[in-house]
Amino acid sequence: MSRFTPLVAALATTLLAGCASTAPSSPVSSAAVQVQVPTVAHPAGETPQWWYRNGAAQAASHGAMGGKATNVILFLGDGMSLTTVAAARIFEGQQKGSSGEENLLSWERFPATAFSKTYNTDSQTPDSAGTMTAITTGVKTHMGAIGVSAGTRSDCADSLNKGLLTWLQLADSAGMATGIVSTARLTHATPAATYAHSPERNWENDTDLTEAAKAAGCQDIAQQLLSTSRYGRGPLVALGGGRAQFTTIEETDPEYDDKVGLRLDGRSLVNEWKQTHPQGAYVWNAEQLKAAANAPALLGLFEPDHMRYEIERKDDPSGEPSLADLTRAAIANLSRHSEGYVLMVEGARIDHANHSGNAYRALSDTVAMSDAVRAAVEASSDQDTLIIVTADHSHTLNFVGYPARGNPILGKVKDKGGEDGAGALDLARDGTGLPYTTLSYANGPGFTGQTNQQPAGPKTYPHGPSSFDPAKGRPDLTHVDTEHPDYMQEALVPMKSESHGGEDVGIWARGPGSQAIRGTLEQNTIYHMIVQATPRLRQRLCDAGTCDAQGVPVELPNGKAFERK
Asked: Which parts pass through the membrane (predicted)?
């Protein structure tokens, strides 16, 4: 027998090599379609059409065309870096009494995962406007752009012919129900990118527009929420903050007697919405939201500015709904429409807390978004609803040291002698003998030098200084409660507001078409994953002549062609 061993081994090797040469290196759906994309010089050759076709090609090659989604829900954790996700996972687990590391946030149980490359056309580290525009239109664009292709941020006239059709407007045109939910102002960058077109994200109400922009014909973002109904019915659900952007300086806020609206043009957009939706419900507190459960259209503006952080909701005098509450209300409304729906839900204040250098609020709002995703899973079926969870960009939050298993994620690092682990459990020390926290920021207002607002040492939220003195070494945190909600993590570089980060963010998905979401994707490909995996959206694009012979939408759609006749 032994004399045949070399022959058998050689034959086995040949057979294995043959199998290896034919097996795909990664899962490829039977619906995978190849789309040719021209080679261009980067970045000079990147036109809006090139970005659109490149995203379509990547989605089609992954098999997104095989999706049969009736509904789509996109969750956007603004500024939700992978570090934020990891820390929030532990934070939630420890709140439940476990060590934390073994915990999973709701979307981390989804079967499909990928990475998203977040850069803008003009910046390695992006902002929320350009990134969300990439996600909603399939085209990457400049920092600050809302629903327009790349150009000059302050040039209204240049932007007028660069409007991009969003998948919310596409869905509206296709007869689907549409909704927007955010804990930010509804006119803020992320929600605005689902319905508005502006080269400058800060043109939220009429007082924000420059005279040149007004003369050139640009409209403020708030009024565009109403005018986007030209594609169909407009959003049947719009829930978030930002009352003041929609009301005039003559209107007293219904919740705060000392506040009025911001508009100077005399237009009460809330009243205009009511006139357009006589059977609809306008609400501004939790009880009104519950009472409006059967309304055919729903506008909820729960704060004059952004909605409250999750930890502060209990302090709202009129009662403010959670992100999970808003999500349930939106799905309950939209799911009544048999033609299907698309919904965008933003956990906006994760970003704001990171900017403020306050990890507690960033993590607790991430957990609140996990609750909202869980609510969506419970209210939908993975047989007909594609749910995607992602972030627009990262932040500079760091997860450092060698803390022992179960060490409080917001606490000071306790280890057993660092990487060697040779000692007793005790506070870890830096090179000068001082303890330090597991979480810190690379830059931001947590810099420990004296500022014009707070003395040298650990900083307390809120803190947005305009001047800094150099730090004289690190503070001694031995007796500082770093787990307090208002403790601000130390920052290396002094800045009034902590900056975004430029690294990739995560994508998690479940439902029809989710198997296409894998690998490392350009951020604008998320749009193409959605439209290709949703037959009603894909067919609407094909009916407008934007598809190739394989039925893949590859031509940049002209938004005017999708407006009601």
From this structure: none
Q: Give yes or no: 128 in active site.
A: yes
pLDDT at 226: 98
Q: What is the tens place of the pLDDT at every residue in 237-256? A: 999 999 999 999 999 999 99
CB atoms under 10 Å from CB of 189, counted, come to: 29
Nearest CA to 203 out of 134, 268, 145, 139 is that of 145
Instruction: Return the HEC string of 341-386.
Output: EEEEEEECHHHHHHHCCCHHHHHHHHHHHHHHHHHHHHCCCCCCEE
Rounded to the nearest angstrom, the gap between the alpha carbon of residue 441 and the centroid of all alpha carbons in its chain is: 20
Q: Which amino acid is at 441?
A: Y
- Contact at 8 Å (CB) between 69 and 176? no
Work out the angle between the directed axes of helices 535-543 and 525-533 (0-180°, nearest 10).
Answer: 100
The answer to whether the CB of 500 falls within 8 A of the CB of 443 is no
Angstrom distance (rounded) from CA 339 to CA 359: 41
CA–CA separation, 251 and 267 (whole Å):
10
Burial 498-528 (b: 16+ CB within 10 A, else e): bbbbebbbbbbbbbbbbbbbbeebbbbbbbb
- Residues across the chain: 565
Q: How far is CA 464 from the centre of its chain?
A: 24
Structure tokens at 394: 């990262």
Residues sharing a CB contact under 8 Å with residue 115, sequence separation 6 or more, in sequence order? 504, 505, 506, 507, 519, 520, 521
- Alpha-carbon gap, residue 402 to 505, rounded angstroms: 24
The per-residue pLDDT for range 399-431, each reduced to its tens digit, is 999 999 999 999 999 999 999 988 899 999 999
DSSP 168: H
Q: Are strands 237-241 and 177-185 parallel, antiparallel or unpaired?
A: parallel
Spatial contact of 344 and 183, defined as CB atoms under 8 Å apart: no
Q: How far is CA 51 from CA 57, 118, 237, 445, 521, in A?
A: 10, 14, 30, 37, 13
> How far is it, in rounded angstroms, from Cα 174 to Cα 296?
19
- Amino acid identity at 196: A
Q: Name, in order, each residue with C-beta under 8 angstroms of 432's C-beta and a sequence gap of 6 or more.
A: 473, 474
Burial of 60 (0-12, 13-18, 19+ CB in 10 A): buried
- Cβ-contact 565, 175 below 8 angstroms: no
- Pure H helices in 23-103: 48-61, 82-95
Predicted model pTM: 0.94
Q: How many CB atoms lie within 10 A of CB 222?
A: 26
Residue 335, number of CB atoms within 10 A of its CB? 17
Catalytic residue among 128, 159, 380, 440: 128
**Region for residue 492 given its phi and psi (left: phi exceeds 0; alpha: psi -120 to 50; beta: otherwise):** alpha
